[in-house]
Every structure is written in C-alpha cells, then in structure tokens.
Fold:
Amino acid sequence: MSEYADEARVLGEIGTVFRAAELPALRVTVPAALASRAVSAWERDDEGTVPAAEDAAERGRRHRAGTLALIGLAITERGQVDADGNTVVDLGPELIGVAMDAADEL
Structure:
C-alpha cells in the first residue's frame, strides 16, 4: 500500500468521525441561476436505476448529481431569496464539502 493510499484511508476515518459529530449547518448564498439548476436536478424524474456496469468516474458523477439534487431539495424547502435575487440556505457541511470537491475538477 502506498503512503498516499494509507493517508487517504486515514482521511476517510477522520471523515467518519466528522459525520458522527453532527456538525452544524452553514448558511450559504447560492447565485440565482445555480439555485435554479439545483432545484431542477431535485425535480428531475429519475428512473432511479443504477447501471449494472459503472466505472468509478461515472459513479462519482452520479453521486455528485445526487448531491446537487439534495442541495436543490434544501433550496426548495428552506431557501430564502435575498435582495439580489440569490438564494440563502443552510446546508450541512457534507453537501458543501462535496460541492467544493467538485469545484476542484472544473
């Protein structure tokens, strides 16, 4: 096992501890156009079937699309439009973290 693999495993263990800690939600502002796309992801009629053969990259994209939909759900249920037309919503740190990880791949 490489040094990086071991450290990645340790990071995963730390993440497990963080999940169990029930960290507080954070208030974020989502630009109007992006909030609309997140809500659309939530409202999309998905068959809910997972492909029989799926590589790691495709699985990662599917999970990130699911995270976008969960952000859309939060916006739908709790989002408030501010004076600039953007949406302010409290999100769990896990959703924020996945979105920030996705930003690294842009």
User: Anything to note?
Assistant: The mean pLDDT is 92.
